[in-house]
């Protein structure tokens, strides 16, 4: 029942409502330039979000390396010269 109603609604729409000016060949229309601007804006948002994720993971990697280096320095300072190596 829903499919038949949706089909009748689609067939009843005017053909002008089914496509944008770019599809009809009027690529100089304001609607076409607005569509292009919207696409570029959305691509920019995606790029910003991906750069945010990448910078967050780079921050985590640098932080982990810094903590590991500090732990190594602390461990090296605690051992005396004769400790930590096997003397056979």
Keywords:
about 90 residues; mainly alpha; about 75% helix; elongated
Explain what this protein looks like in three dimensions.
This protein is an all-alpha fold and 88 residues long. The protein has one domain. The protein is built from three helices and no strands.
Task: Please summarize what this structure is.
This protein has 88 residues and is mainly alpha-helical. It has one domain. It has helices at residues 2-12, 21-24, 30-78.
Shape: elongated
The largest sheet is: none
Query: What is the strand content?
Result: under 5%
How many E-type strands?
0
Topology at a glance:
Layout lengths: L1 H11 L8 H4 L5 H49 L10
């Amino acid at each position: 029942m829903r499919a038949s109603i949706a089909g009748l609604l689609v067939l009843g729409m005017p053909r002008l409502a089914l496509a944008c000016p770019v599809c009809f060949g009027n690529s100089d229309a304001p609607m076409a330039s607005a569509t292009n601007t919207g696409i570029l804006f959305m691509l920019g948002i995606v790029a910003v979000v991906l750069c945010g994720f990448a910078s967050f993971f780079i921050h985590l990697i640098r932080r982990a390396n810094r903590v590991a280096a500090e732990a190594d320095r602390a461990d090296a300072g605690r051992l005396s010269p004769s400790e930590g190596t096997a003397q056979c």
